[in-house]
Design brief:
This protein has 29 helices and 16 strands. It has a five-stranded antiparallel beta sheet, covered by helices on one side. It starts with a helix and ends with a helix. Mean pLDDT is 79; it is low at 1-8, 344-349 and 660-669. It holds the Pfam family HTH_18.
């Protein structure tokens, strides 16, 4: 069985159980770890506190001893018996013995741990001791007297004074206190009193502590002022060396550490807790070591309890997570089951990893359907929007304001009902070349882009709606605020910017016509007709012009019907005299004067001028150029968009007519003939009877001359061009229209389906169906 299919139905539920269980387990683990670590730290701190109490007791005993001996030293230094010995000029052994006996009897009776009392007499350079022997030479004292070394005063010094027993020198450890006066002159003192204290009481105290904690491995050590141990011979020297080294390293690494504290160190794989404290008045340091495992053994039971509790919580987490997951999952599971049961169509897309992925797949498919429906709805609304805008332009609607506002709102028309309206018409220049240069789809795209660019630029100041009239122009209905009296000049600047952008991106130009404004939306039809009439004045103003009523007011109100007859006579004289310069000058004056007429009179004047030129040429027995033939006037002159183009045609025709080698200049003379044939084919390619013979008959020229002229100019025969153009149109229809191959062949003027298949495959190397499939796949990929 496929694991994916097995767990797919409940995969999300299993994930919920695992995630909730994991979350609870992590929480318990973190809390347990925190409790365990805190317990360790707390135990260490408590152990440190207990160790400090022990060390403080030793510290107190040492301080008490130090204070007692210090007071005794001061007392003895001033004692008469001591001073009698210390400052005697002559040595009298009886007196010395008597005075020492008094001193020892008074001191030892009061303080039993006094070892001995030493007195140094500088006058005699002799030292005496209450111990054995009487004349004890204190080497440390003599070294001090004979050197510049400063002897510590009233500070306990742990030293070995070495006693002689049966002729053998044995170690004798004591604490020694020295007291003396130093003369101001810096000379050596006259006398020194030395109090030697037995160390047994302190060492026995420490040994007792070590014996008490012997099973735990605890030990106490004392370091003197110079960092040496007070050694009674009972401790391991290796332990002392390790402890001293680590303690000094710790103090060096932590200069900010307090005088009392603790740290952990490892020796021989065993971790130790080291507690230390300083005895300030003596300069000594107390150290206590304790194995950390002995401390942590009390927490082992706690660790076992924590592990047990964690396992219990793991089981509880599973139970709780299953319970919680069921409650959370219930609506999700119900929804998934409902969708799975209610879905009419199932597909491979339904096979998903878990429930959420399944819902996501269903949601995505539903949204795709909704998006499709929305697109259809938008397209429907776009069609209806185009319908209502077209009606506003082409009909004088008598609809109430409330109903019109409702239509605007429903169709999302952005025009503002309050205020005025104007029509802006954008007429594509050189429209015939535009038709020949682009396919139908490209032409629609360019018109759509023109609407978008111009609409976006005008929308900075005026709300507007664009409309593609599916001809040589697009139209905008523009909302104009009532207070904007100079809207035409403002729109003029905006439209010039739109012209620049369209020209830069699409390499085409357009002429704009702006109507007057009206406050009644029912009059938009009249404003549209006004804009159309104004646009015809492109003939006089030229391409890329922006036309308003003010710009053509002089032409419209001009009452003259034609140019001056005097200019016509001058032109005839110039033609008969073959004065080229005079001809061009007169023609320039004629066109300048025609440029001031209204559109209709200017057009009639052009026909009149051509008639006069033809008449004069015929009188002169000069062959008229083909571009001035009656059959070419409507195409070459009346259909031209600007006066500049008409002017150029007439000047070129006159030049061609007067050339002696007119008939030999095939390319120049037959330009308009070839152009006419090409245009005729492009407009009548759907006619099955279209052929070289039918075209020659219409053009009133022999088929032989027509075929030769056309092929010499274009390097392709007329039948081949007819087939090429028909196949190009068929290729467009294959990817644009939902028609079968026979219908497309018939639509492009080819009635023989087999012949169409043969020609199409010869040109495109594939069948019509394969061509359509490939083009559609390319469009989908793009």
């Amino acid at each position: 069985m496929n694991i994916k299919s097995f767990f797919g139905v409940k995969a999300y539920f299993i994930k919920m159980v695992l995630w909730i269980s994991t979350a609870i387990l992590i929480l318990v683990f973190v809390l347990s770890t925190v409790v365990y670590i805190n317990s360790q730290n707390l135990l260490v701190k408590n152990e440190y506190a207990a160790n400090q109490k022990i060390l403080y007791q030793v510290k107190y005993n040492m301080s008490f001893m130090d204070q007692t001996i210090t007071n005794l030293s001061k007392f003895l230094y001033l004692n008469s018996d001591v001073t009698a010995i210390m400052y005697a000029k002559n040595e009298d052994m009886i007196e010395v013995s008597k005075h020492l006996t008094k001193v020892v009897s008074s001191v030892t009776s009061a303080i039993p741990y006094i070892h001995s009392v030493g007195i140094y007499n500088r006058n005699l350079d002799q030292s005496y001791s209450s111990g054995f022997p009487l004349f004890f030479k204190d080497q440390m004292l003599y070294d001090f007297i004979n050197s510049d070394q400063a002897l510590p005063k009233l500070k306990p010094i742990f030293r070995d004074i070495k006693k002689l027993v049966n002729g053998v020198t044995e170690p004798e450890y004591v604490f020694s206190y020295f007291i003396y006066d130093t003369p101001a002159s810096g000379a050596k003192p006259d006398g020194v009193v030395v109090i030697n204290v037995k160390p047994e009481w302190l060492l026995e105290n420490i040994n007792q502590i070590n014996m008490i904690d012997k099973q735990k491995g605890d030990k106490v050590f004392i370091l003197d002022q110079v960092g040496e141990y007070l050694d009674d011979g009972t401790h391991d020297s290796a332990i002392k060396s390790w402890l001293k080294t680590d303690f000094l390293a710790y103090k060096t690494a932590h200069p900010e550490a307090e005088r009392d504290g603790f740290f952990q160190s490892k020796r021989g794989g065993t971790q130790y807790l080291v507690t230390y404290t300083n005895v300030d008045n003596t300069g000594m340091t107390l150290l206590k070591t304790q194995p950390v495992l002995e401390i942590y053994k009390y927490i082992n039971s706690l660790r076992t309890s924590i592990i047990i509790i964690t396992l219990i919580f793991l089981v509880m987490a599973l139970v709780i997570s299953i319970s919680i997951s069921r409650k959370i999952y219930r609506p999700v599971g119900t929804l998934v089951n409902s969708i799975m049961l209610d879905r009419i169509r199932r597909s491979d897309k339904d096979e998903v990893v878990d429930e959420i992925s399944y819902l996501n797949t269903v949601y995505r498919q539903s949204m795709e359907m909704l998006d499709h429906f929305d697109k259809e709805k938008v397209q429907y609304k776009d069609v209806m929007k185009h319908y209502w805008l077209s009606r506003l332009l082409t009909e004088s609607l008598s609809i109430g304001r409330a109903e019109m506002e409702s239509i605007f709102k429903e169709m999302r028309i952005s025009l503002v009902m309050e205020g005025s309206f104007a029509i802006c018409l954008l007429k594509i220049d050189n429209y015939k070349e535009f038709q020949h240069a682009f396919h139908a789809k490209d032409k629609d795209t360019i018109r759509f882009a023109m609407i978008n660019i111009a609409s976006e630029i005008m929308a900075r100041k005026y709300p507007n709606e664009g409309l593609d009239m599916k001809d040589d122009h697009v139209v905008f209905i523009v909302s104009i605020p009532e207070e904007d009296a100079h809207f035409q000049s403002h729109m003029h600047a905006l439209l010039e910017e739109a012209q620049e952008n369209v020209s830069r991106f699409f390499k085409i130009t357009f002429t704009a016509s702006i109507s007057e404004k009206t406050s009644h939306i029912q009059e938009l039809n009249s404003m549209y007709n006004q804009a159309l009439d104004q646009a015809m004045y492109r003939l006089l103003l030229g391409h890329s012009s922006v036309i308003t009523y003010e710009t053509i007011k002089i032409n419209v109100e001009n009452k003259k019907t034609s140019y001056s007859r005097n200019y016509e006579e001058l032109l005839v004289d110039a033609m008969k005299s073959s004065n080229t310069e005079a001809k061009e000058k007169v023609l320039g004056n004629i066109f300048e004067e025609v440029g001031t007429l209204n559109y209709h009179n200017a057009l009639v004047s052009m026909i009149r001028l051509v008639d006069k030129v033809i008449e004069t040429l015929e009188e002169m027995k000069v062959t008229v150029a083909p571009s001035l033939h009656i059959s070419s006037i409507s195409r070459n002159i009346l259909e031209k968009e600007t006066m500049v183009e008409i002017h150029r045609i007439i000047v070129d025709a006159l030049q061609d007519s007067f050339k002696k080698d007119f008939q030999g200049n095939t390319t120049k003379l037959n330009y308009f003939l070839v152009d006419a044939v090409t245009e005729y084919i492009q407009n009548h390619y759907q006619d099955p009877s279209l052929s070289l013979t039918s075209i020659a008959s219409i053009m009133k020229i022999s088929t032989r001359n027509l075929s030769k002229t056309y092929k010499e100019a274009t390097h392709i025969s007329i039948p081949d061009y007819i087939n090429e153009f028909r196949l190009t149109k068929a290729a467009d229809l294959l990817i644009q229209d939902d028609l079968n191959v026979y219908e497309i062949a018939e639509k492009v003027g080819i009635l023989n389906e087999t012949y169409f298949f043969s020609m199409f495959k010869k040109k495109y190397k594939v069948t019509p169906k394969e061509y359509a499939l490939r083009r559609n796949m390319i469009n989908l990929i793009q």
